[in-house]
Each structure stands twice: as C-alpha cells, then as structure tokens.
C-alpha cells in the first residue's frame, strides 16, 4: 500500500473514530441522564403519594368534624321543634329525617327511656334498651342530668355517627347521621386513584407502594414487582436512595417514601418503558454513524489531496533511488526539489549529495574490485596448486603409513591373527605391531597417540620405531615400556603422548607376559565356554608424559583356542547421531559368539557392529583392533 493511501485511510479513520467515540460518550451521558430523570420522577411520585395519603387522612378528619358540627346544629334544631309542640313530636322527627340527610332522632328522659323517635312512638321503654349499645351510658346520663350540654359519641358505628344535646330538664335529644357519604370522598382522594391517574404518563406502566417490610399496600398497572427485583426496594429502604435497573424492555425504579420527619417508611416501585431511552441511543447511533460517514468522505478527500502533495516529492526521490540502483541517475533531476526551503528541500539536497558520493564510490569500488578479483584469481590458482600438492603428499603419506603396519601375523602354526586400522582423517595416530622376538616368543603391540592428523602420524611412526627397538633389546614388557618412555620424553617437543599395550606370547606354553601403559585393557575370549574377560591392569601411565615412571608386568595363560582381542578407544567411544557411545559392554556382547569364528570373522563382526551403531555419524577417532588366536605348540597346534 502506498504512502498516499495510508495517509488517506489514517486521517479519515481517526476522524471517524473520534466522531463515533464522541457519539458513544454522549449516548452514555444521555442514557445516564434519562435514568437519573426517571429516578427523579420516581422520587417525585413517592413524595406525591406520601403527601396525598397524609392529606387524605386530614381531609377525612376535617370532614368528620364538619359532620359532627352539622349533627350538633341539627340536634339543636330538632330540640327546638320538640319544645314548640310536644304532641306528635315523633311525626315531626320523622319529617325532619325524611327532608334532610339524618338517619335517626331520639328523645330520651333521665332514665334513658325513648320518649319520641323518628321511626315511631315507642312509648315507655325501660333503661333505653333500644338505643345502640355503643352509645356511652355515662355520656347519656351527663346530658339528661344537665352536666353536659352536648356530646359527640365518637367514630361512626355501623356507618352512623351520633351526637347528643340537652333538651330541657331530665331530657336529651340524640341525632344520628350516616357517614357513608364520606366513602366517596375517601375513595376520590385515595392513593390508588392518584396512582391510576399517573399511569401512562411519562411512560409509566405500573406503580406499586410497599411498606418498610416490603409488604404491598397498593398496586396499579399490569405487573407487580418481579421476585428477582426485590433487591431494589430493599436497597432503597436501607439506604434511602433511589435505585434503578433496566430489565428487557422496561426500566424499574425504586424511590423511598418518607414521613413528615424525613424517615423512610416505605418505597414505591415504578415500571417505565425504556422506549424513550432506546430511541435516544438509536438516534445517537444513527447520527454518529451518519456523521462519521460524511466526515470520513470529507476527510478522505482532503487527505487525498494533501497526501498527493506531500507524497509527490517522496515519489520523485523514490524514482531517483531506482535510477541510482540502475546506474541511470542524473543529479540535476532533483533540482526542482532542492530549491525548496522546507524539510523536503533539505532532504532532497542531502539525498542529491549522497547520490553523487555513492556514484563516485561505486566507480572507485568497481575499479578496486576488478583489481582485487584479478589478484584473488591468481592467489586462488596458487592455492589450488598447493592444495593438490598437499593432497598428493597426504595420500603418499597415508600409503606409507598403511605400508608400515602389517596386515596379518607371520605364518606360524602356533597362532593366527588379523589387524585393521581405519583413520578418522587422512592420517591416523593409532598403530599396532607384531614381531617375533625369537623362535618361541611373539611380540604384540597396540597403541594410540594423542591428537590426530599429520602430527599424530609422525609421533605414531616415532613411537612404533622406539617400541620395536626397545622390545628387540630384550627384557620384560615392563622394562621395554620403561626404556621407550625415557626415549619419548626426551624427544617430544610437542609434548604429545601415547597409550600402549605390549605383550610377549610364548607359543610353546601359551604364557602371555604383558605391560599396560594407560591403554584399554585387551579382552580374552575363552574357547571352552565362550566367555569374555578383561586382562587385569598393570597400573602404568601413558608414554611420553613423565620420565622415570615404573611399568609393572603381569602374566596370563592362553589355552589352546583362546583368542586375544586388542583395540583402541576409537571402538569403545564411537558415537551415534544422538551422542551415545558404543561402549565396552557392546564389545563384549559382540565377542561372546566369536570363540569358534575365524579371526577374520571376529574382526569383521566388531567393525561391522560399530558401523551399524554409528549409522553414518561422522567418525571422531581412529578405529584400530588386533585379533590373535593361540593354536597351541607348533607340534600340537589345532586348525584355526
């Protein structure tokens, strides 16, 4: 993607993203404002309900007081009627009840007997037993005795409120009026009516009033508070704060109801439609997306024009860079840019100077490369010639080294043997040797020089010559190693050393005298049971390390048919691709079935097992081994 397109997309995207973020922020603020407004409305409703309930009680009390005053006035009026015309007073009472809204009128004497009534002439009724039992007898006696002028008998009984007045000496007038007319007033001013009036206003769907124990006192609307929302009024009652929760398509708001002292005495749960809230968010989203699209288009256009103006000099320098790569650059092509006084002009001038210097350096470098290439070709030719000479000399040295080592033992009916040495490099540091010391003794040597390559091969030749010369001087194997060690320590400028095993086999008796100078202990394969065992060590150190070192001797006996296997650590330490060593245990396992094999087969079995184990892994050391089988005295020798 080009720089121009990236600038266009970056600028337009940043503007559009900013608009979307602002729209979302305003949407969230609007949502929170609507929720806060709903909570405020719920608190207003709660205050209205609380105040309405209080005013309803006050209004009823005042209405009852008015009723009491009216009853008292009517009782006095009826008393005047009774004073005007005593005969037929019951008929007058009945007329008053019929014309007004009184329920009953009674005239009683000092014995609480009914003298006249709006419901007929009772005559003399003893102890006023027809009067309601709820009328206080003490209050009635206070009226007829003259101690009290009027008495309000308190709350209504069976829907009738009674008031009494004194009606002359020894008499009292009782007036009763039904208060059921106040039920309409109570109903008209009740909280449910007020709640019904609030429904469907400001998206209110249902209202429920709860006391401080969350018991429902009044509820209007289609739904009661769901059980899973009982935590809202609980929190409101405990904290005194309005709470809200959005559930599906509705907004539930809980607000506290307080008494005149400000104490929370309940809560009101209001269910409101969140259609207005959703509509606000939808409008903000539409406006935000639309504005973002318009601004994105405008920003893309502006960014496109600006980006082209900005990118044009960059494209010119890009073209110049390609021309430099193709060696067709002309410095004057950047002159229109170098005349500018802004950052682009500075960059163009630096680029032009750099391009000129690069061109000159390339020309100088090409000339230098041509000269160095010619010189290198000449030196390579000399090196190749030298390498060919060295290779030829190494091959010749390898052939000479191989020729130095005997491949098989001298022909003798008392023994048979086979040897092999495979160097890790062109030339090896291992060697073996066998030579007759006299008619009945055979000298056997196997050794491993430290290091590899040409130095090891030279030290190997020296060590072989020294060991053979020392052996021919006579003495025990230990004496031979002592003399050889002194010579090698005296002529060892590179401080190399060699591990060596030297043995003398008596072909008449099978006695094997040997000394070990730090070498791997050879193995004896017994013909009788096919067992494999190491020769005990003699405790000697490698040759060439330190002069005046002692080397001890030991003697082993070979039975007829026993086989002696000598080897270097190139066999036991041969490694596969995973870095695991072949080890002495595998050598012994390979030799257990070799007691009756020909010596050639024994040697091939070991080298073949090593090759199979390493499975093509690089050879890290020379692989050398020597197999000697004792066949018995020359006159009694067996066939190998």
TrEMBL record:
SUPFAM superfamilies: HAMP domain-like, PP2C-like, Sensory domain-like. Residues 308-363 form the HAMP domain. Residues 373-403 form a coiled coil. InterPro entries: Bact_Sigma-Reg, HAMP_dom, PPM-type-like_dom_sf, PPM-type_phosphatase-like_dom, Sensor-like_sf. GO terms for molecular function: phosphatase activity. GO terms for biological process: signal transduction. The chain crosses the membrane at residues 7-29. Keywords: Coiled coil, Hydrolase, Membrane, Transmembrane, Transmembrane helix. This is Sigma-B regulation protein RsbU (Phosphoserine phosphatase). It comes from Kaistia soli DSM 19436.
